[in-house]
Amino acid sequence: MSITPCCRYCAKGNITETTKESIAIMANWFVNSLVALVCFGLWAFLPKIAVRYINPKSALIYEVLGVFIAGCFVFLTLGKNIENDMRGIVPAILTGILGTLGFLCFLYALTTGSVSVVATMTALYPAVTILLAVIFLKESIMPRQLVGMALAIISVILLVRG
After folding, report:
1. Are residues 49 and 13 in the same domain?
2. Which of 20, 70, 108, 153 has the fewest beta carbons closer than 10 A?
């Protein structure tokens, strides 16, 4: 199988086929992560505008409408490929319930708190995720991840006290 070089460095044979595949895999998750970052940034910002004009429960209803519209688009692109294993369905439904409850609390926090502090504080949820992954999925945590979590917690303390 021949791979077309992506740059002069690759054309000189400095990168192997395996490395190119690794780069392509990384590029895929990295690009998706960047898009998610922008979407979540907007997701955390736009509700502050919404709760200036409507109450949090009303904002939640419109947010759910937005989720429904996006869900319809995904449904249409799946066709007949919707999977139905209960081991995946139950956690997916719980994710929806917890996400909605969390978002409602986020909206209430925005009614009195500044979006910069509320968004940063709630963005610490990966610490909970990492802890659960270590306990239940037996994933390992690296020392630099622990340092990152500690720095994130310190940043929230500084923001709240600032």
Report:
1. yes
2. 70
Look up residue 51 and give its two tokens. 């709760």
CA–CA separation, 41 and 39 (whole Å): 5
Ordered mean pLDDT values, 10 residues apiece, the chain (162 residues): 50 58 68 88 92 96 95 89 92 93 94 89 86 91 88 84 74
Residues with Cβ < 8 Å from 64, sequence gap 6 or more?
100
- Close Cβ partners of 106 (under 8 Å, ≥ 6 residues apart): 44, 47, 118, 122
Q: Look-up: residue for tokens 């310190």?
A: 154
Q: Are 116 and 44 in contact (CB under 8 A)?
A: no
Token pair for residue 92?
Answer: 């997916």
Q: What are the two backbone dihedrals, phi and then psi, of residue 54, each rounded to the nearest 5 degrees?
A: -135, 155
Query: Can you give the pTM of this predicted structure?
Result: 0.71
Please check whether residues 77 and 148 belong to one and the same domain: no
